[in-house]
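Q: Okay, next protein. This is Cardiotrophin-like cytokine factor 1 from Atlantisia rogersi. I've checked the sequence twice, so it should be correct. Can you predict the 3D structure?
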Amino acid sequence: GDSWGIFTFLCAALCNLPVLPALNCTEELGAGQSIQKTYDLTRYLEHQLRTLAGTYLNYLGPPFNEPDFNPPRLARAERVPSATVDLDLWRGLTDNARLAANYRAYSRLLCYLRALDGQAGTAELRHRLGHFCSSLQGLVLSIAGVMSSLGYPLPAGPAGPPAPPGTPVAPNDFLKKMDDFWLLKELQTWLWRSAKDFNRLKKKVPPAVVTLRLEARGF
């Protein structure tokens, strides 16, 4: 009947179709993807630090956990790399200079945080600090990857220890807590500014190239 004739016609047509190539889409990893990954990591660390800072400041107690506590920066705290640079001056730096500054700063901040991890008084706080340190180590490595992908060398020499040998410890508990307070405060500012840096950088670097590879499909 008519139905059988139509079925026979379709089968014949399908059997005589030419062999078509299959499109296999692959993405080449490049600078754009490395920058996007680093940007995402800075935003994740910003979110993670908000919880960690609240927990740690509560551990320090008043006045450090009070919302309006805003002490002047002491000379002791100057050992912590400061992010309080004029924004116009910061943006006027080359991409290489900003990346190098980020790399050095997070390397040093990581040393300070690891010291906090060993001093924290509760198991929960040590766990949170340890997890954050691992994430921050990932950011340092990610920044190194971005610099490499853009053809920039890493800053020469080590990032430097938290303090030169022989630097005296805080003479009292309050000043030690003040050091910790400024460490968290500067880290928050660095992450906020780094997120903006990498957001601008990813707009300057073209997205990863998408290539199409044609593969003959056999039967």
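A: Here is a summary of the prediction. The beta strands are 21-27, 210-216. Residues 177 and 202 are 38 Å apart (CA to CA).
Q: Noted. On to the next one.
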